[in-house]
Design a protein that fits this description.
There is one protein chain. Helix 2 crosses helix 3. The chain is elongated, with a radius of gyration of 30 Å. The longest helix has 25 residues. The protein has 395 residues and is an all-alpha fold. The protein is built from 22 helices and no strands.
């Protein structure tokens, strides 16, 4: 019975299907070809018609759209079709299509016109904004790109202002000549974070090479970025630049030294050099013993170590990470002293521990943590641990 019922069901369906009027299916890609042709029209004035054509093309999956557009521009290698194709991919391309963007922006013979370069930059910016994985494709894109497009890659990184772009900047600074120095410095100023990760710090250290650039504007711009990110590798170069011919470079070097160290020693290179050598010697010879003293069972020794650490101005992020655990010390005076030292060190590494200390059972410790947080961040939130955690997490 079951087999008979199935046979009757299929027979009925077949009869209904045969009774329907036949219509030919639209050719695959017909609508997309028409939409692309619409966008190429120079007399197109109706915004609605243009938006409809864009919507038709952008309805395709990113990969399918990219393949269609590459085929579409093949017949017009040096015409406006490439600019239109890039516009179609804006907001649709993913990391997989970054190489396609480079190919679309590269004419067959003629130099890339300004409109095409602009379209490439705009589309790349939207791609980076929509898919963070696209940052990993920037170095391969640089290597494939014609020299005319390379400034647009750096401009896109600068426009996005995301620290993920540091990978490309570090690569260019390492493997390319000095023709891109100023663009690299401009981009770095836009993307360098105030509290870089370990990987970002390594990339920023690579960009310290720009401090030797013959371009004084580049040197001053990269100095701003490196000082904000507290890149101590730049210190010897800044000390050397205190004797530079350019007055602006000398001034910027001094400001960078003061910003990173938190002290003022004027414009005398020898004073700064002596300070730097003394700090380095302390870290190498005295530092390990003092850091070991911080975990002593003797409160007197811990407090003495904290006083010594508070005087240091090099490797303050690392020192802050050693001091921060003391905010959980059993002695309230140690916890309070540790907060004072963290405030003096000025490291953003201490912020999460200071936020947790707002819940300290000792009111004076909690108040000290609140004061330190406001000083280090410039923010004036209530002494609420959850509020501060949310604020620090959002940054």
């Amino acid at each position: 019975m079951r087999q008979l019922a199935l046979a009757l069901f299929f027979a009925t369906g077949l009869a209904v299907t045969l009774a329907l009027p036949w219509r030919p299916a639209p050719l695959r890609g017909q609508a997309e070809v028409a939409a692309f042709a619409t966008l190429l029209r120079t007399d197109l004035e109706a915004p609605a018609e243009r938006e409809h054509a864009l919507a038709t093309l952008r309805a395709l999956a990113p990969g399918a759209l990219a393949r269609f557009l590459e085929e579409a521009v093949a017949a017009d290698p040096d015409g406006p079709a490439r600019t239109v194709a890039l516009e179609c991919l804006a907001g649709r391309a993913t990391h997989r299509e970054v190489a396609t963007l480079v190919r679309l922006a590269t004419p067959g013979l003629a130099p890339a016109p300004e409109a095409l370069r602009d379209a490439f930059r705009v589309t790349l910016v939207t791609t980076l904004a929509g898919d963070a994985r696209a940052y990993a494709e920037l170095v391969p894109a640089w290597r494939r790109a014609h020299s005319e497009l390379r400034p647009e890659l750096l401009a896109a990184v600068a426009e996005r202002g995301d620290a993920a772009g540091l990978e490309l900047l570090a690569w260019v600074a390492t493997f390319e000549g000095d023709e891109h120095d100023r663009a690299l410095a401009d981009a770095c100023e836009r993307v360098a974070p105030a509290a870089p990760t370990h990987e970002q710090r390594e990339q920023l250290e690579t960009l310290c090479a720009l401090l030797d650039s013959p371009d004084t504007v580049c040197v001053q711009t990269i100095s701003v970025a490196l000082a904000r990110a507290r890149v101590e590798t730049a210190l010897p170069a800044w000390i050397r630049l205190l004797a530079a011919e350019s007055r602006g470079t000398r001034l910027r070097a001094r400001q960078s030294l003061e910003e990173l160290s938190g002290i003022e020693l004027g414009s005398d290179p020898d004073r700064w050099r002596n300070w730097y050598e003394a700090e380095s010697i302390w870290l190498e010879t005295r530092g390990p013993a003092v850091l070991a003293q911080l975990v002593s069972a003797d409160v007197t020794e811990v407090l003495a170590a904290l006083r010594e650490v508070a005087e240091r101005r090099l490797q303050r992020d690392e020192l802050a990470l050693w001091v921060a655990p003391l905010l959980e010390h059993e002695a309230p005076n140690v916890r309070q002293a540790a907060i004072v030292v963290l405030e003096q060190l000025g490291s953003p590494e201490a912020l999460p521990a200071l936020a947790a200390a707002l819940a300290d059972e000792e009111p004076r410790v909690a108040r000290a943590a609140w004061s330190a947080l406001r000083t280090l961040t410039g923010k004036d939130l209530p002494p609420d641990e959850e509020l501060w955690r949310l604020e620090l997490g959002s940054g």
